[in-house]
Specification:
Blueprint: H1 18-23, E1 27-29, H2 35-42, E2 55-59, E3 67-70, H3 76-89, H4 96-100, H5 124-134, H6 139-146, H7 150-162
Antiparallel strand pairs: 1-2, 2-3
Helix pairs in contact: 6-7
């Protein structure tokens, strides 16, 4: 999995914004100087009374209760010793197709398809009809009309772009419908 660590020496609301807090639910606070700094990081006090030297408060995702934990110190020599130990265990076995950037079938994960071979969404044809008739190719419009989530709607709109039905988003984010409007019947 992916591990993302954001660190700052100055825990202010200018640095740790609400957007960051909303999208990164797990937090760790080491010793801080004031209760305000603790509240900025953890949304509660407590980090101002830590002992230092690896003492920290951990806020797990989905919880409002902090856990006091202690981080072990690893010197540079310790880290180098571990790296050298792993190096001595054997030479790495690289997959040349990955390091060269080749996308052969053996380089794909199970269930993954090569680029361009993506399956069309079951709603694709209905979305095409809607976009061509309404002359609007926005993700939010597709979401509302078909009552689907953002990710699915965005994927369908990207498929529309790949098929030449809508343009790439302009500087303002709007997409132009490139497909011709359906012919109108004359009475």
């Amino acid at each position: 999995g992916f591990q993302l660590i954001l660190a700052t020496q100055r825990p202010s609301v200018d640095v740790i914004t609400g957007l960051i807090k909303a999208n990164i639910p797990t937090r760790v606070a080491f010793t801080v100087s004031t209760k305000t700094d603790s509240r900025t990081i953890l949304d509660q006090g407590g980090a101002e009374s830590l002992l230092g030297m690896g003492d920290m408060l951990y806020l797990p995702p989905g919880s409002s209760h902090t856990v006091r934990v202690h981080g072990a110190f690893a010197s540079d020599d310790d880290v180098h010793a571990v790296v050298n130990n792993w190096k001595a265990r054997g030479k790495p076995n690289y997959i040349d197709e990955i390091t060269n950037g080749d996308q052969g079938p053996e380089a794909l994960l199970p269930g993954e398809k090569p680029e361009g071979e993506e399956e069309m969404d079951p709603l694709f044809d209905q979305v095409v009809e809607h976009v061509v008739q309404s002359r609007r190719g926005s993700v939010s419009g597709v979401q509302r009309r078909f009552k689907i989530g953002y990710n699915r709607a965005a994927r369908i709109v990207e498929q529309l772009e790949a098929q030449g039905i809508v343009s790439a988003p302009g500087h303002n984010g709007n997409r132009e419908v490139l497909a011709p409007a359906p012919g109108r019947e004359m009475n």
